[in-house]
Amino acid sequence: MKELSFAIMELLAISLGLDRLYFKTFFEDGESIMRCNSYPPCNNSSLTLGTGPHSDPTSLTVLHQDQVGGLEVYLDNKWFAVRPRLDAFVINIGDTFMALSNGKYKSCLHRALVNREVERKSLVYFVNPKEDKTVKPTKKLCSSDEERKYPDFTWSDLYEFTQKHYRADVSTLQGFIPWFIAGKPSNY
């Protein structure tokens, strides 16, 4: 999974006009997480979500879903099902990578629905930088007429915010910035 994520990072760097190894170097000492999700069936699946609408606070998410389906992405004000394929991964850009790209790449709003009759499972690999590494875009991604969209922060700061103070959603970074600038108050 690490090799796959580095290959994807190389493509992302090239697409941004950076040296192909830029993000690989940034993430090589990173702290990635692998998780298995299980969504039990629910007789009235319209009343529950496996996970509500959110974007991942991580940098990159590599997902393999079973054949049950249930992953949906939000695009153009509509939810679209992501058809499961045994021979493919789903790749999501997360909030940390959105900040690293100065907003040139957007994090992906998505949700997981449960099935009425069958358990749904997925295997997820979240790519994160080392917890104390400063997350900031390279100067090459910030032109003289374009402002920086996010302050410098560490992965541990964003992780703390999403675990203790804020449920990750489409506005995670917008909620994070005032908390971070205010000195990370515990009563936020």
Automatic annotation (TrEMBL):
<protein>
    <recommendedName>
        <fullName>Fe2OG dioxygenase domain-containing protein</fullName>
    </recommendedName>
</protein>
<dbReference type="InterPro" id="IPR005123">
    <property type="entry name" value="Oxoglu/Fe-dep_dioxygenase_dom"/>
</dbReference>
<dbReference type="Pfam" id="PF03171">
    <property type="entry name" value="2OG-FeII_Oxy"/>
</dbReference>
<dbReference type="InterPro" id="IPR050231">
    <property type="entry name" value="Iron_ascorbate_oxido_reductase"/>
</dbReference>
<dbReference type="InterPro" id="IPR027443">
    <property type="entry name" value="IPNS-like_sf"/>
</dbReference>
<dbReference type="InterPro" id="IPR044861">
    <property type="entry name" value="IPNS-like_FE2OG_OXY"/>
</dbReference>
<feature type="domain" description="Fe2OG dioxygenase">
    <location>
        <begin position="29"/>
        <end position="129"/>
    </location>
</feature>
